[in-house]
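Here is one chain, start to finish.
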Amino acid sequence: MAVSMIPLLLVGNLPFLAVALFFAGLAIAPTMITTMSLIEEHVPRAQLTEGMTWVSTGLAAGVTAGSSVAGRVIDAAGARAGYGVPAVAGAVAVAVGFLGYRRLKRPAPGRGGSVGQHSEREERHVA
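Its structure:
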């Protein structure tokens, strides 16, 4: 997703910008799916909803902060410079991902398996 933001800095007209934004948008769904899968693997079952809520809240806060920063950058340096904000944010996200890579390689202790690994008996008990 971070790499898909780079072409936004290089476009020179509106049609090419539309194409670049289309391809950048294609990276959003796989990124969200991967993020939610990591949450599912690393958060204890009893706290799964809370973990996904924290990710959604973080996403909303990031979009809010990014919009604010991009607005200030655009006011100071012009519209083209505003496309640097998501590129820089993507680079920061990649750096944070690399810093936490070892922790992300292994599921949380006491996870109790994935959501798909529960017995029919447990399912009846919940119902």
